[in-house]
Write a structure and sequence with these properties.
8 strands; 4 helices; alpha+beta; binds coenzyme A; Aminopeptidase; 195 residues; eight-stranded mixed sheet
Length: 195
């Protein structure tokens, strides 16, 4: 289990115009988001599904069946980011975010989804989850990792660019709402070759 406390960040007070999750308790984050990373437990599932519904629009978010299948799939890993004092108070937001990744049939890493609650964004939670998943993929000798993201998801594109992902190709009309996907990739091991 890893503990993270962001060294610095845009700590805000009160409401923020970027927050789009109804009922989010923003004041909790005035002192930053201190969180732990841990493995997925079965009882987390409904919360993860709910976070996914809020992170993505209909047509891009997963059904319960889809999300459960990705989490259970052979070679997949799910990491949870949880508020470090989740047990300690009624205002605790508990699970702040999660990532689902897998080793695909060709041995490449694949990020299936990464979701952080709107109120917990821009405090390093996504970076912590991504780094932990990349570490686990590296540990099983994945040469690289790929993912799909919508061309209009500018926040995600900035996030992945910051973490060293580059554009591999575009898939037209990938999403059910007709939006194109960008396939991004990052090499995880030295001298990784395309596959
Ligand atoms: C993308 C996502 C996972 C990022 O999580 P996060 O916890 O906010 O990420 P971090 O705080 O670690 O961000 C690190 C850096 O990424 C970049 N970044 C993240 N979100 C950004 C945004 N909305 N706009 C611009 N840059 C952004 C910034 O460089 C940021 O550093 P900074 O805050 O110091 O400027 C989160 O916004 C999210 O869950 N979005 C909805 C779901 C989604 O789109 N997932 C990805 C597609 S699969």
């Amino acid at each position: 289990m890893q503990h993270f406390r962001p060294a610095s960040g845009p700590f805000y007070s009160g409401s923020t115009p970027n927050c789009c999750e109804p009922g989010a308790i923003l004041l909790y984050y005035n002192v930053g988001v201190e969180f732990i990373l841990r493995e997925f437990k079965r009882e987390d599932f409904e919360i993860l599904w709910d976070i996914d519904q809020k992170c993505f629009s209909p047509g891009i978010s997963y059904s319960r069946l889809e999300l459960a299948a990705y989490i259970r799939r052979r070679g997949s890993l799910t990491i949870i980011a949880e508020s470090a004092d989740a047990k300690g108070g009624a205002q605790s937001p508990g699970i702040v975010g999660f990532i689902v990744a897998e080793v695909d049939r060709r041995g490449m890493g694949h990020i299936i989804t990464i979701d952080v609650r709107a109120a917990g964004r821009r405090f390093g939670v996504g970076s912590g989850l991504l780094a932990a998943a990349e570490d686990q993929l590296r540990a099983v000798r994945c040469p690289g990792v790929r993912l799909e993201t919508a061309v209009d998801n500018l926040g995600a594109l900035a996030f992945y660019k910051r973490h060293g992902y580059f554009l591999e190709r575009t898939i037209p009309h990938y999403y059910s709402n007709g939006v194109d996907a960008l396939i991004l990739r990052k090499d995880l091991l030295p001298q990784a070759k395309s596959s």
